[in-house]
Amino acid sequence: MLFYVDEISVRLIYTLDFVFNEHGLAYQLTNDKPIFESFEGTKISYSDFEFGNTPCLNPASLLFEETFRESIVVEKGSWHGVDCLKFDSVSDPLSSIFYVLTRYEEYHVKFPDEHGRFTSKESIQSKLGWLHIQIVEHWIEAFFRIHSPKYLKQLELGRSVQIIPSFDIDNTFAFKWKEGWRSWLSNGKDLVKNNQERLKIRKLVQKGELEDPFDAFELIRSIYKNYPETRVFWHLGNYAKYDTNIAWNDQRHQQLILEMSSIGYLGLHPSYSSNYSDEKLNQEVVRIKTITSKPIGESRQHFLKLNLPKTYRRMMDQGFEKDFTMGYADDYGFRAGTAHEHAFFDLLTNEAFPHYRIVPFAYMDGTLLEYKKLSIEKSLAVIDQLVAEVKRYGGVFCFIWHNETIAEAGKWKGWKKVFDHTLEQLK
């Protein structure tokens, strides 16, 4: 497909690269009117200039701007009967794709939560009822349906689903290997609360007479074996209020990490504290590379603390190439409007980074139980809807669990059913 535009911009190239190249299709751009007029294939004018019988899509100005606008007016619009976004009174599906995919609204967070995060309820997709669908993919399909059914057929034939179970290791064990002051402190808390069950379990685990309730690593190994794209992200930060894993320099801990990294993909789970310290982030990068003796190119932020564009800039500076943080803690769905992997675009520098990839996730275990307060049965229904959406429009079905949740520790008893159901529905 050939596009005519008044000017060729980096934002337009980024958007069309996603719409076409990332979906196995091809396009060309020109701002030369004679070349466009003489072209005999499928073509469209993305301009206010009309070429006789050639299809024309009147653009908003968003894809031709070079700076970030805090005061941009975004409303619900309609284009050929399709709901999309309207920018300064112009309904434009291509600008809608760019706006949602780049997370434009997250560059100026007005109401962060207690952890400084942009929340789902503040997103335009949530406000318009689009968060639980791949709204970007809906717009792409509508674009081809209206302007080129031939491309729509190619788009549909090329769709596939990539399955990525993933685990964040925030607390490797509940009791095992936690010694000294940490063991005394936890023991004291349980004594104060008169939690006899935890006191008993801790004693049996530390004596080696009972498996630690968070020990799901044999299970994760089997998942690695059956789903080779499985990811594990390990927390290696220093102990702090929100960073409570076992000491990174415990030789037994290091050996476990090394064993897991030899099986499949293992990435860094940067600590909560590292969000405020380049020195701490660098320490954790050095630690995981030292333990595994190999380069680590993938990460997911602890607490899903994503600050745009700062987080991605910092990870790129550390040599990372792929991030798995794109999703919400407080709701399930499609934060970037798609389940498809895509390149990072920095709105402050107006620059695309095709070699730094963003992999969205569809849901997190804690979102279902802790944030949404869903039952197991209602969670299964949510999974069905999310899986159906990804099967319909293709993409990556990445989902987050933790070793303690897959092990069904404490309140997670019975929840492995939800994990298993996810994989069953994806088969």
Q: Can you tell me the CATH superfamily of the largest domain?
A: Glycoside hydrolase/deacetylase
Shape: elongated
Tell me the count of domains. 2
Quantity of strands, as a count: 15
Residue share in β-strands: 15-25%
Strand order of the largest sheet: 9-8-7-15-14
- Indicate the percent of residues in helices: 25-40%
Overall pLDDT confidence: 94
CATH architecture of the largest domain: Alpha-Beta Barrel
Low-confidence stretches: none
In short:
This protein is an alpha/beta fold. It folds into two domains: 2-155, no CATH class; 161-174 and 212-426, Glycoside hydrolase/deacetylase (TIM Barrel). 37% of the residues lie in helices and 16% in strands.
What's the helix and strand layout?
Layout: E1 2-4, H1 10-19, E2 28-30, H2 33-38, E3 43-45, E4 74-79, E5 82-87, E6 90-91, H3 93-101, H4 124-127, H5 135-147, H6 149-157, E7 161-169, H7 181-192, H8 196-206, H9 217-226, E8 231-234, H10 251-261, E9 265-268, H11 278-292, E10 298-299, H12 310-317, E11 322-323, E12 342-346, E13 351-358, E14 363-364, H13 365-371, H14 376-393, E15 395-402, H15 403-406, H16 416-426
Parallel strand pairs: 1-2, 1-3, 7-8, 7-15, 8-9, 10-11, 11-13, 14-15
Antiparallel strand pairs: 4-5, 5-6, 12-13
